[in-house]
């Protein structure tokens, strides 16, 4: 389902939203990406950074993608999944405007919440946020492929649909903010992990679904032995795997 992006822009503006990410599980054209960025220009949007996550298609040419990035300073990244190979390119300007190809195939919203050391990100902003807030869900609002408004597209709980509910109305619901202040220091396992302040959390998939402070399901690291193991074969995680149908 393609949402009416133009109708959503005024809502982004009223919430003072500066960063957005658009995920596409099916093929889209570069012209569509251009139309999104042009719309933001036309509306004089306050959005300063936009990420596109799109499936690979052989018609995509690196030269065309670089031109798109050079002409549109709002684009932070274009991540292309299901690529024939893994490769990251240097950003065009100060950590903005980069292309990343990944062989991993992102079929749907369940391909999320994976914890790996290669995803660790160390900077003052993330570290400071992690001390007081959740590093994934703090002040984040999402719209899934069917228009349901959620904390994260991977979560089952929704707070309305964009067809009849505004983003502001959802933010006014106290329950929507219940994850915002769950820090790594409150989460089982994570609170003893040396990587907790450079690791992005996941509350969508957790080991014990009934426990709000349970360890992320898709993390295979054991902070007590300093070992990385395959999370999907861990017997302690089978309950969560079955619950989420992964």
Describe this entry's structure for a reader.
Residues 137-194 form the 4Fe4S-binding SPASM domain. This is Grasp-with-spasm system SPASM domain peptide maturase. It comes from Flavobacterium pectinovorum. InterPro entries: 4Fe4S-binding_SPASM_dom (IPR023885), Aldolase_TIM (IPR013785), GRASP-with-SPASM (IPR026497), Radical_SAM_PqqE_MftC-like (IPR050377), rSAM_sf (IPR058240). The protein has 246 residues and is an alpha/beta fold. It folds into two domains: 5-101, no CATH class; 117-244, no CATH class. The chain has helices at 5-14, 30-42, 62-71, 124-132, 167-171, 238-244, and strands at residues 19-23, 49-55, 75-81, 87-88, 98-101, 142-143, 149-150, 221-222, 227-228. A five-stranded mixed sheet has the order 1-2-3-5-4, with helices on one face. It has a two-stranded antiparallel sheet with strand order 6-7. The longest helix is centred in the N-terminal third of the chain and has 13 residues, at 30-42. The protein is globular.
Largest sheet: 5 strands, mixed
Question: What is the overall number of helices?
Answer: 6
Radius of gyration: 19 Å
Helix and strand run? HEHEHEEEHEEHEEH
Strand order of the largest sheet: 1-2-3-5-4
Q: Kindly estimate the percentage of residues that lie in beta strands according to DSSP.
A: 5-15%
Residue windows where pLDDT falls under 50 for at least 5 positions = none
Number of domains: 2
Shape: globular
Tell me the helix content: 10-25%
Record field, number of beta strands: 9
Our measurement of the CA-to-CA distance between the termini, rounded to an integer number of angstroms, reads 23 Å
Structural class: alpha/beta
- Give average pLDDT, whole number: 93
């Amino acid at each position: 389902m393609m949402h009416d992006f133009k109708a959503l822009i005024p809502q982004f503006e009223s919430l003072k939203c500066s960063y957005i990410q658009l995920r596409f599980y099916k093929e889209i054209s570069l012209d569509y990406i251009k139309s999104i960025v042009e719309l933001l220009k036309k509306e004089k949007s306050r959005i300063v950074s936009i990420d596109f996550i799109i499936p690979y298609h052989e018609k995509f040419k690196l030269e065309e993608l670089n031109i798109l990035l050079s002409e549109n300073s709002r684009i932070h990244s274009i991540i292309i999944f299901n690529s024939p190979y893994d490769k990251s390119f240097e950003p065009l300007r100060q950590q903005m405007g980069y292309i990343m190809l990944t062989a991993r195939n992102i079929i749907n919203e369940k391909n999320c919440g994976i914890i790996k050391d290669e995803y660790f990100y160390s900077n003052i902003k993330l570290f400071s946020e992690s001390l007081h807030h959740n590093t994934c869900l703090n002040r984040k609002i999402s719209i899934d492929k069917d228009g349901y408004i959620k904390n994260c597209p991977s979560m089952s709980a929704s707070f309305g649909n964009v067809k009849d509910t505004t983003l502001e109305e959802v933010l006014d619901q106290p329950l929507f903010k219940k994850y915002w202040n769950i820090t790594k220091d409150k989460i089982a396992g994570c609170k003893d992990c040396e990587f907790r302040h450079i690791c992005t959390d996941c509350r969508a998939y957790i080991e014990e679904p009934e426990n709000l402070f349970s360890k992320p399901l898709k993390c295979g690291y054991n902070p007590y032995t300093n070992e990385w193991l395959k999370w999907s074969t861990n017997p302690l995680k089978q309950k969560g795997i079955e619950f989420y149908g992964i």
